[in-house]
Amino acid sequence: MMSSGGGTFWIMGIAWALVVSWTSATGMEDRCLPGGKHKASPSPEGQLGICQIYAENACCSPEVTQDLSKANDIYWNRCGSLSSRCEGYLQQLECFYRCSPIAAQWPHPQRPTAVLAVPLCQSFCDQWYDACKEDLTCARNWLTDWHWGPEGNNCSQDCLSYGQVRTLNAPRWMQPSAPEIT
């Protein structure tokens, strides 16, 4: 008969092996989204600035993250300057999209370079909303609500506060559904 400590260790070992096998068999291992400014496959990068959290295994280059840190080059501010708190949350999301080797686990079915239904903790969504509720946006759906031209994305609707829109967590690529980690 196995002791409870040894049995637990054995079961955890089997569970880990199954997760690793399932991940490899289903193609869920770390990979980059196709196209855009994503690298072909994740690899270490030295200096990623505000996206440094992904430096050990990144799908982005330092050049991509330099663009993120220049407020004038970021196109989420088409309705005026963003508060620093709101911009910080949008930069975190952009870092995830551009640099994370797990973002490709939530591919958009019609737009392979985009993601859809990424699970988020409700607490993150609440903090994001609180940071941005007074800031302005003109896109309710960040994949479809833009007029695209030579200068990038432009508003196709009137500017409203995120508080008025109240779909901050629905740029249609993230879902507040992940369980809280306590």
Automatic annotation (TrEMBL):
InterPro entries: Folate_rcpt, Folate_rcpt-like
Family from the record: Belongs to the folate receptor family.
Domain Folate receptor-like: 31-166
Protein name (database record): Folate receptor-like domain-containing protein
Highest taxon in the source lineage: Eukaryota
Record's signal peptide: 1-25
Keyword Signal in annotation: yes
Gene Ontology molecular function: any one: riboflavin transmembrane transporter activity
Keywords assigned by UniProt, alphabetized: Disulfide bond, Signal
Pfam families: Folate_rec
Species per Swiss-Prot/TrEMBL record: Podarcis muralis (Wall lizard)
